Structure formats: structure tokens, C-alpha cells
Amino acid sequence: MRTETIQALTAYAQANADVMLITADLGYSVLEHFAEALPAQYANVGICEQAMVGIAAGLALTGRRVVVYSIANFPTLRCLEQLRNDVCYHDLPVTVIAVGGGLAYGAQGYTHHGVEDLGIMAALPHMAVACPADPHEATALLPQLLERRRPAYLRLGRSGEPLLHQPTTPVALDRAIWMRRGTEVALLATGPILGRALAAADVLAKRGISASVASFPGIQPLDEEAVRDAGRGHRAVLTVEEHSVSGGLGTRVAEVLLAAGLCPRFGKFGVTDALRGQIGSQSWLLDRLGPVEDHAAALL
Known about the structure:
Blueprint: H1 2-15, E1 19-23, H2 32-37, E2 42-44, H3 49-61, E3 65-71, H4 73-78, H5 80-88, E4 94-99, H6 117-122, E5 128-130, H7 135-148, E6 152-155, E7 177-180, E8 185-190, H8 194-206, E9 211-215, E10 218-220, H9 224-233, E11 236-244, H10 249-259, E12 265-271, H11 282-287, H12 292-297
Parallel strand pairs: 1-2, 1-3, 3-4, 4-6, 5-6, 8-9, 8-11, 11-12
Antiparallel strand pairs: 5-10, 7-9
Helix pairs in contact: 1-7, 3-5
């Protein structure tokens, strides 16, 4: 996903000379294509992420559209004050591309897990928050974020995420994509964990349970009508995300359902406090949360 996104960014920047990419000593074997093609639109500022965001804000004030690139936990948590006060307060066209969202850097432990980022970024003013499920969503969302000319956050996986969509599938920041339609439980997913939601729907079908699956490429703005559709049309709703169960997609979906007076049985599949002290591969850590299908079936 990250390689396809940087390739798309390179092509976009070649057509738009005001776009600049900044990294904090990261992205080797990924960013070279951009740096070699557009050296005047690229800068590696060294291991100083907070300065990176401050520099991005300064460049944005001169008319640039700036993309900053780092591992998910660093530009969201280490740079939160700079994003809040320098970028969002002034409503500047700075897009954060975060690689390794969720538990992608699982073996590095909790310090490198990006599992609070979606909730934190969505709470900032003017910030659009996108969490693509596959390379198709990622490359479709990138120009939409840049063309807003406002603060934006694009959370990517690490590498090797499979395509889950057809090449012609339309992708919009503020629109959910219904992958399957069922009648009993709706699985609302964001990010590459959509693959587990689709696999769970297959297992549920074998158990005689009809499941819908929707991908939410955008967290902010959220497709609230799709959430209400899920609440009206199903006995249960389960959100599925590689993020803390507090503050992310599940929290935002619950708020929409409650405001609409919809009360399906509701659950959240995501990272819990019990997982934070554990170290292992991304798939191993997700397996510790149990099968998505079991979480969904328990709601019925």
C-alpha cells in the first residue's frame, strides 16, 4: 500500500509543483522514487519529527501543499502540539501520511503501535482522517485529501496489503463502500482489517448468519447515513478496526446510532488494554483478540 501511494504522490507532484514531501529520516526503499524524480520538492530533515511538522506549516504558509511522512505513532503523538497549533489552528494544507498504522510494527512493541491515532486526529479542527483498506482506496483518497488544501491524515498499512476492491470501484472520503449485503449483522470496518471482516462474513454464512460488510475509507468526515442504514437494517452492528476500542470508528459509529435513536445490539472489535503489553507479529496480535465472526455472533 505504501509503495503504490508514494508512486501516486510522485505522479501528482509532477503535475503540481506546489506539492512537497518531507520525511524525518524515514522511508528508505520507499521514497527514493519521489526524491530522484523531484529533488526540489523533497526534503529529509533528519530525526526531528516535531521540527518536520513546523517546517511543513511554514512552507504551507508560503503557498505549498506539504506532505509529511513517518511511522504512525510519531507524527500523531510526538507531533500533536505542532499539528494542533501550527497546522490545524491555521487550517493549513499539510497532509500527514502515516505508514504502519495499527499493529503493523507489532514486534517493536507498544511504543511503535499506532492504535490511538484515528481518534486523536479526528478530534483536531479542520482535519480529514482517512484509513484506506487496500492500495485502491489509498491511491484514490490521496488526491482527494491534497485537493482539499486543508489539514489531512492518511493512515496506511506497512506493506503487502492485498487488493480487496475491483479497479473500477468508486472511492470517496465521505462514503462507505458496501462490500456485501446481509440482513442480520453489519460489520463496519476501516483499514486493511477489512479483509478479516470479509472472511468473517464467509464463516458466518456457513453458520447460517447473514452479514453485511462495509468499508469506511474515511473516519472524518464519517458517512453517517451508512451508519444509520446499518442500524436500521440489521439486528446487530459490529465495528472492526485495528485501533483502540476507545475513540476510533466504534466510538463514532455508536454516537451516530444513539443520536438517531437506533438501538441495534452493538459491539466493537479492536485493540484493548490487555493487548498493549504484548509483542508479536501483526497477525499474531490480532489473533489474540479472537475471531471477528465470534464477536459478531455473540451479539445475536
